[in-house]
Design a protein that fits this description.
By secondary structure, this protein is an alpha+beta fold. The chain has two helices and four strands. The strands form two sheets. Strands 1-4 form a two-stranded antiparallel sheet. Strands 2-3 form a two-stranded antiparallel sheet. The chain starts with a strand and ends with a strand. About 15% of the residues are buried.
């Protein structure tokens, strides 16, 4: 898959720390820190958008560079 997009955290204060996005990430890009989502390795992101689609609170977005 071409790496032409990147993940962004739009509203970290909306994150409930459910971890659904971490579970669906195939390349281990995300992690929880202090019960909020964080990007731990942006370079691994393959722009699959799994995290964006599963987040119930619209915290994450995959965008064009």
């Amino acid at each position: 898959m071409v790496k032409n997009n990147r993940i962004q955290i739009l509203h970290s204060d909306w994150c409930k720390g459910c971890g659904l996005c971490i579970e669906v990430c195939p390349v281990d890009v995300l992690a929880l820190q202090h019960e909020k989502i964080m990007i731990k390795n942006l370079e691994k992101c393959i722009s699959c958008k799994n995290c964006e689609f599963i987040c119930p609170d619209f915290v994450l977005r995959v965008v064009d560079k």
